[in-house]
């Protein structure tokens, strides 16, 4: 008897709200927006790294605090998918559902990685 192994490689489209970036350009201008985006993406990466460590260590208080921070950064940048999923993770954490928390955290982690790579869709 042969067994079939299936590898799942979920990919999610990361939506970037172009109107948010447009507002930033209107407020700050081109060079300043690019610098802001670079800093914000670095911060997003740092917070994501902190979240990984906190989740692995089961530091749920720090994890919750950094989830809110990640969500604010994503909203500020117009990364609507990442912000929404971060909110979903917060709900699972608040409900005390470890299975849902694990699933939504995995989804958020994949989405944050995609956002950091610049794999966005806008519309």
Sheet-strand content, in percent, reads: under 5%
Average pLDDT works out at 88
Helix- and strand-based class? mainly alpha
The number of helical runs is 5
Approximate helicity band: over 70%
- Along the chain, the helix and strand elements come as EHHHHHE
Distance between the termini: 49 Å
Residue stretches low in confidence (pLDDT < 50, at least 5 long) are: none
Number of domains: 1
Largest sheet composition:
2 strands, parallel
What sort of overall outline do the alpha carbons produce when their principal axes are compared? Answer: globular
Radius of gyration: 16 Å
Query: Number of DSSP strands?
Result: 2
Kindly report the spatial arrangement of strands forming the biggest sheet: 1-2
Report on this model:
- The longest helix has 28 residues, at 30-57.
- By secondary structure, this protein is mainly alpha-helical.
- The chain has five helices and two strands, in the order βαααααβ.
- It has a two-stranded parallel ribbon with strand order 1-2.
- Helix 1 (18-28) crosses helix 2, helix 2 (30-57) runs antiparallel to helix 5 and helix 4 runs antiparallel to helix 5 (98-117).
- It has one domain (14-122).
